[in-house]
Specification:
43% of the residues are buried. By secondary structure, this protein is of the alpha/beta class. Helix 8 packs parallel to helix 9 and helix 12 packs parallel to helix 13. The chain has three domains: 126 residues, Methylthiotransferase, N-terminal domain (Rossmann fold, 3-Layer(aba) Sandwich), CATH 3.40.50.12160; 229 residues, pyruvate-formate lyase- activating enzyme; 60 residues, Beta Barrel (OB fold (Dihydrolipoamide Acetyltransferase, E2P)). Helices cover 33% and strands 22% of the residues. The N and C termini lie far apart (52 Å). It binds 5'-deoxyadenosine (5AD) and iron/sulfur cluster (SF4).
Length: 443
C-alpha cells in the first residue's frame, strides 16, 4: 500500500484545494495517512496571506530533510499560494533540494500528471505558471469534513486591497458555470452532506465574468431548488459588493443559514481609503442595517486588521467604535503583515511592532467581550446544531447552529451528521454547552 499526506496552511479555500489534491492522489492508488514516516508522498499546500503562515510552512518543510535522507523514495511536493510569488520557486528549488515537485495555484488540477512525470523521469518537476488559469471541472475530491462540504464557485480576486497578496497569487476572478455548481450541490446533498459552503475570495462578484443573466443573488435563488434538508453558507463577502438583491435572495432561501461573514478590516475612513476597500465605515453600517432589515436575527462575523501603515491611535479607536456599534457575533482579528509586491508594503510609516501588539490585544479583548455577551443570550434557549464531530477531550459531541455557534452535548448514539436540538445550559466564550432534548419536548 502507498500512502499520502497533505499538509494545509491557510483558509477554507486551501483546505478545499487539499481535498482536491487528496482526491487526485487517492485516484492514483494512494491512501491517506497522518504519519510522516508512513507517507510515500507529502504535499505542502501553502498560504502566503500573512508572514507567519509562510514561516510555518518553511519550518515544517525544512524539518523533512532528515526523512528524505532516511527514505529517498519519499516524494515531497509543494504547491499553493506561496509558490506563485515571484522568486519563491527558485528559492525553494535551490534552498530545499529535497523538494521533488513545485506547482502553483493555477495548475493544481494537473498535480497527478506532475507526479507521474517525477516518477517516470526521476527528475525534479517545477511547474508554476503566471497565467490566471482556467476553471477545470471534474477533478476528484476526497472530502474530509462530513457532514460539511465546500464548493468552490469562483477563483481569484479583482479587488487589489493594498495590503493583500491574493490577487497577485490567485489571478483574476473566474466563475464556474452555475449549472456545475447546482449539480455539485445537489449531488452532495443526495450523498448526505448537510452543510454546503460556497467559496470564493469575493462571492459577491460571482458571475461578472460569465455570459448570460447570472450573478450571486441569482445563484442563491437557483440553489433554492436543490432538494433535501441542508444548510447553505457562503464566504467571503465584500461590503462594497453586497447588494440588496443578495440579502433578499438569502432571506428568501430557506436553505440559507442566517450568518453573513462581512470583513470590515478597519473602522477609520482614512485607513479604509488607503486600503482601497472602496467603502466608508458608514457604508459598512448601512450594509449591516440592510442585512438586519431583511433578517433581524442574522449573525454577522468579520475580519479586522490592526497596524496598517500610518494607522494612528485615533484610527484604531475608530475601529473599536465600529466594533462596538455593529456587535459582531464573532471576529477574526489580524495584525497587518507586510507582503512583498503589494502597495501597502511600499508605504512609509509602517506601525512599530509594539504598537501593533498593544492594539491587537485591546481589539481581541473587546471582541471576546462581544462574543461572550452574544453567547450569554443563548442561555436557556433551545437551538438546532448540526453535529459535526465528537470532541475526545470533552467526551461530548459538537455541532454548530445556523449562526455559527458551536454547541457541545452528550448523546448515547453517534450523532455525527444529524441535526440535534439542545437546550443551552451554559456558555463559555464562543462555546455553548447544552442537553439534548427530544423533539416532543421542543420549545
Ligand atoms: N496582513 C494581515 N492580515 C491580512 N489579511 C489579508 N492580508 C493581510 C495582511 N497582509 C486578512 C484580511 C482578510 C483575511 C482573510 O486575512 O483581514 O480578510
Ligand atoms: Fe484580498 Fe481584498 Fe481580494 Fe479579499 S477582496 S482577497 S482582502 S484583495
Amino acid at each position: 500500500m502507498k500512502f499520502f499526506k497533505v499538509i494545509t496552511y491557510g483558509c477554507q479555500m486551501n483546505l478545499h484545494e487539499s481535498e482536491k489534491l487528496a482526491g487526485i492522489l487517492s485516484s492514483k492508488g494512494y491512501f491517506p495517512t497522518e504519519d510522516n514516516e508512513q507517507a510515500d508522498i507529502i504535499v505542502f499546500n501553502t498560504c502566503c496571506i500573512r508572514e507567519n503562515a509562510e514561516q510555518h510552512a518553511l519550518g515544517n518543510l525544512g524539518a523533512l530533510k532528515y526523512l528524505k535522507k532516511k527514505k529517498p523514495s519519499l516524494i515531497i511536493a509543494m504547491g499553493g499560494c506561496m509558490t506563485q510569488q515571484p522568486g519563491v520557486m527558485e528559492k525553494i528549488k535551490e534552498s530545499y533540494p529535497f523538494v521533488d515537485i513545485i506547482f502553483g495555484t493555477h495548475n493544481l488540477d494537473f498535480f497527478g500528471d506532475y507526479l507521474d512525470e517525477r516518477l517516470a523521469k526521476k527528475k525534479r518537476v517545477f511547474k508554476v505558471f503566471e497565467t490566471d488559469g482556467k476553471i477545470y471541472e471534474g477533478t476528484k475530491v476526497l472530502r474530509t469534513s462530513y457532514p460539511n462540504a465546500w464548493v468552490n464557485i469562483m477563483q481569484g480576486c479583482n479587488n487589489f486591497c493594498t495590503y493583500c497578496i491574493v490577487p497577485y497569487v490567485r489571478g483574476r476572478e473566474r466563475s464556474r458555470q452555475p449549472e456545475f455548481i447546482f449539480s455539485e450541490v445537489q449531488k452532495l446533498v443526495l450523498m448526505g452532506y448537510k452543510e454546503i459552503t460556497l467559496l470564493g475570495q469575493n462571492v459577491n462578484s460571482y458571475g461578472k465574468d460569465l455570459e448570460g443573466d447570472i450573478n450571486f443573488a441569482k445563484l442563491i435563488t437557483m440553489l433554492k431548488e436543490v432538494r433535501g434538508n441542508f444548510r447553505l453558507r457562503f464566504m467571503t463577502n465584500h461590503p462594497k459588493d453586497l447588494t440588496e438583491d443578495l440579502v433578499k435572495a438569502v432571506a428568501d432561501n430557506p436553505h440559507c443559514a442566517h450568518l453573513i461573514h462581512l470583513p470590515v478590516q478597519a473602522g477609520s475612513d482614512r485607513i479604509l481609503k488607503l486600503m482601497n476597500r472602496r467603502y466608508t465605515s458608514q457604508d459598512y453600517i448601512n450594509k449591516v442595517e440592510l442585512i438586519r432589515k431583511y433578517m433581524p436575527d442574522c449573525a454577522i462575523t468579520t475580519d479586522i486588521m490592526v497596524g496598517f501603515p500610518t494607522e494612528t491611535e485615533e484610527d484604531f479607536c475608530d475601529t473599536l467604535n465600529l466594533v462596538k456599534k455593529v456587535g459582531f457575533s464573532s471576529a477574526f482579528t489580524f495584525v497587518y503583515s507586510r507582503r512583498k509586491g503589494t502597495v501597502a508594503d511600499k508605504m512609509d510609516d509602517q506601525v512599530p511592532e509594539d504598537v501593533k501588539k498593544d492594539r491587537i490585544m485591546r481589539l481581541v479583548d473587546l471582541c471576546n467581550e462581544q462574543t461572550r455577551e452574544y453567547s450569554s443570550n443563548y442561555l436557556g434557549k433551545t437551538i438546532t446544531v448540526l453535529c459535526e464531530d465528537f470532541d475526545k477531550k470533552k467526551q461530548m459531541y459538537m455541532g454548530r447552529d445556523e449562526y455559527g455557534r458551536m454547541g457541545y452535548f452528550e448523546c448515547e448514539n453517534n450523532a455525527i451528521g444529524e441535526f440535534c436540538k439542545i437546550k443551552v445550559t451554559s456558555a463559555n466564550g464562543i462555546s455553548l454547552f447544552g442537553e439534548l432534548v427530544d423533539d416532543e419536548n421542543q420549545q
